[in-house]
């Protein structure tokens, strides 16, 4: 296959690869925004903690789009330097995705104790202020949406005989009381969101690593073009032009280089010195 045809083939492969990266980045943006929005609705219960992995996932989605612009522009202009930067940034970005995945798993493993303490403190405040009849209170919304009741269960309300079950603890269909405690359900929900972040990061890293070979190959093909000389040697065009513009010296004429033209130098014609004829004077 000719060099120009190979460059054109890998150029379109890089275009397809950039579109794939853009799709992965869009998925990161959408999933990260949805998880962050879901978490922010009940974040005050855990003192606004554990939102960082979702925000990082959104940031990685934005960086993916910036990388797509760099890769598309570099491939369309066939700029070898920018393509090299695109490959380097892409490798670094894939490594960061794997690190974010591990960070999310580590956060999931260490959030149980601080989450339990924050949820218990929030529930105690909810009972102390007697906000069970406030339909807009965050605990009523949590119990209604997660189908749970109390901190550990319905026993938290039974301890206070003067306080009945709030309306949010009842199933609207069969009017039964939810028996599951909200602490277990809510912590489990945060843990699952952390796992989702880890899965999205790993999947994006694996997908985006599939076509990096195409970008590297295109970068290598866009090296300085060469010419095939009659003697079978490859010579750079840039070097050839430089030699053509270099003035010839007597040493170069007498000793031609191996890569120069194979034609013998034109011999110089000998110069015959001019001799003036003597002038004869007439005698008187």
Strand order of the largest sheet: 1-2
Number of helical segments with 4 or more residues = 10
Radius of gyration: 39 Å
N-end to C-end Cα span: 95 Å
Q: What is the total tally of β strands?
A: 2
Point out poorly predicted stretches.
Answer: 232-246
Mean pLDDT: 79
What oligomeric state best describes the polypeptide chains here? single chain
Helical content band: 55-70%
Major β-sheet profile: 2 strands, antiparallel
Global shape: rod-shaped
Q: What pattern of helices and strands is seen along the backbone?
A: HHHHHHHHEEHH
Q: Percent of residues in beta strands?
A: under 5%
Structural class: mainly alpha
Could you please describe the fold and organization of this structure?
- The model is unreliable at 232-246 (pLDDT under 50).
- The chain has 284 residues and is an all-alpha fold.
- Helix 2 (52-77) packs antiparallel against helix 3.
- The protein is built from 10 helices and 2 strands.
- Among the domains are: 1-76; 90-209, no CATH class.
- It has a two-stranded antiparallel sheet.
